[in-house]
Design brief:
The chain is α/β, with parallel strands linked by helices. Helix content is 35%, strand content 25%. It is elongated.
Length: 251
Amino acid sequence: MHRFFLPREAFAGDWVVITQAGTIHHIRDVLRLGWSDEIVCLDNSGWEYQVVLDQIGDGRITGQIRGKHLCTGEPRVKVSLYQSVLKGDRFEWVLQKGTEIGVSEYVPMLSERCIVQDANQLSRRKALRWEKVIQGAAEQSRRGRLPPLQPMVLFAAACERVRSSAGLALIPWEEESTPLRQVLEGAGRDHRPFNVSLLVGPEGGFSGNEVQLARDYGAIPVSLGPRILRAETAGVVAAALVLYHYGDLER
């Protein structure tokens, strides 16, 4: 069944009122849904609503709510992915696949070897597109909440933010030999942290100075194995391994 995230004001009693042009276009023109067809609407708080479409117009769609349930697609462990900005559309790929896997938050990060000309302009230009990518992936993968996309930060500020989160912080690095699994097992599966922060580098990786700074702020360098992963792959793989370890990829 097709799923759509809607703003809170769209829910009124036993009805939903859809006024977002993109959602209306998708329901009416792309999916060609009509009267009495059913969809699932989400309010981004963890609830999903079974909705039967009623009236479909040019600027407004109404539907009657027939049921309300808690979503089952949200992980118990919150994974915050601090992903260094990547070239081209690779960052969008990370957002899409990370959302499907279960990443709970994204923090775009500018590290030493990022290749960007104007970070502020890039952030403004890309933010809306990135949020649409996250929403599409969340709807497709049956998420109950949209992972927030935080403002872009410098690497040092990211380290400070990670330390203040008071959870488990990991920094995958190709020159580290300690396996991720060893660190997770040392932390204990039965004592799962509320949140895990992953600091992931750009195409050129992190510098030794950056890794040392991350250590100083409490992050643990880890290895993702004997093969060198691309920058857009490392964060998705690390997030999947963390969620698998804590049982969040099981039904």
